[in-house]
Amino acid sequence: MLWLSWLTRQTILNRLREVPIKGFVIAATGSGTGKTTISLAILAYLRSKGIQVAPFKVGPDFIDPGHHTKIAGRTSVNLDSWMLTKAYNQSLFAKNSQGCDLAVVEGVMGLFDGYDSTSETGSTAQMAKWLDLPVLLIVSAKGKARSAAAIVKGFETFDPDLTLAGVIFSQTGSRRHYEYLRDAVEQNCTTPCLGFMPRNEEIVMPERHLGLMTADELVMSPRVISLLVSMVEEHLDMDALIKRLPVIEPRKVPADLPASIKNKTMEKQGPVIAVARDKAFCFYYQDNLDSLKKAGARLVTFSPLTDTQLPPGIDGIYLGGGYPEVFAEHLSAKTTLLAQIREFSRAGMPIYGECGGFMYLCGQVSGMDRQAQYAMTGCFDFCVQMSRRLRSLGYREITLTADTLIGRKGDVIRGHEFHYSSLVDTNAQKDTDTQKDKSARDLTIKNVYQVTSRAGQDILLKGYQKNQTLGSYLHVHFASNPNCAPVFVEHCASFRQARQTSRPEQPIKSGKEHHGLQSA
What we know:
Elements: H1 2-16, E1 22-28, H2 35-48, E2 53-58, H3 63-72, E3 77-79, H4 86-97, E4 102-106, H5 124-131, E5 135-140, H6 147-158, E6 164-172, H7 175-188, E7 193-198, E8 207-208, E9 211-212, H8 222-235, H9 238-244, E10 272-276, E11 281-283, H10 286-294, E12 298-302, E13 316-319, E14 321-322, H11 328-333, H12 335-346, E15 351-354, H13 356-361, E16 362-366, E17 373-375, E18 380-386, E19 392-400, E20 412-419, E21 421-424, E22 446-447, E23 449-453, E24 463-466, E25 469-472, E26 475-476, H14 484-502
Parallel strand pairs: 1-4, 1-5, 2-3, 2-4, 5-6, 6-7, 10-12, 10-13, 13-15, 15-25, 16-18
Antiparallel strand pairs: 8-9, 11-14, 16-17, 18-21, 19-20, 19-23, 20-26, 22-24, 24-25
Helix pairs in contact: 2-3, 2-8, 6-7
């Protein structure tokens, strides 16, 4: 195949010097079209051909990048036009696609869906134009015939600055159904049809309250991966797609990406931060971890589900989001680990928890049955109650009202909130959304966040700080403010120095490595 020979030459050249690569965005007419399944199928197919692929995901989603990473064999990175600047997104894309043959970017929602109905802000289309990438458009064939041509026509003419590389129909009933749709499109549109993906229950991905099952829980068998590859081989014209892709003009990657601030007290070997990583805690922006390492931290992982104690010699803890409510009983059983984290919190070790990690820092978490209560670390004396409805969703901007682990007073940071639980007053058993905040009675807990929505509306979301422990439902993107990662690392370095001054430090004996966490 001609494009395979092109990629072979490019692979050799990429190993010798920086050269342009090719890439495209996978977008859809709307949610529910099978965009993620098709993205995974294409990634699996490309990897099966020995092609080095750089996967990306538009938006704040954690689950899709996890699946990308498992399928592609290379860490998938989030791109986001609200939390991050245009220049940062472009640099992030350039940095993480270096040395690869193809860059594949999965979009979010529908191609033109963004923050409002009058602009492209926040949309997949905007990101495609920022990165100068053509779009592979997915159109659901379910319940459609000739009208599909009108949909494609609208998408290819809606924004003249956007390029469509081709159209794929999902959820088709048969090959004949696809041929009918293809004929209609070819008669009325200029965008070529590049194939279809038929309905197949074997590749439908299971979901739960926060979305798809995570890659840490859902292990795709070799048979399923083989099925994905064969579906692409049989139904998609990848040759034609690759040939239509223009070469990406190379961009210079700034040396300061992510930003780095050298601490005067930083030792030759930086502080060690323990990152919770297992089925219960797996929601992390890869760029956050990279930023911590760039700022001088060494990262080791531990599992609150299976470990009985923290890794030795650590100077801080980072608890990301995930599903602690699903595994609450197992987490609660690790009493020694829970007590160790609580004692480290009292001793002033920097501990940062967001969303699921924040829930883990509370006193109790209700199980998914909403009946039993399970003890957590107790760093914050809050009870977390699960709900059957979504409690909060959206982009958030915070202004720090005090110095914190992730920034200084006055710093503005951006992030995303998405959860089905809420805090409950442990005395009155009433939701803090309507009851006086319990932190008002516990003066050692301070709210250090002033929060607004993307539209500038005040939000009740809070950031709680006690000792050197900071927790909130907000998933913060460290790159939204250059102080975030360096300040966190500085706190850990200070804690390390204070502890070494008071008593000799024990050497780090071990630390489990995790892809993308341990080594830069």
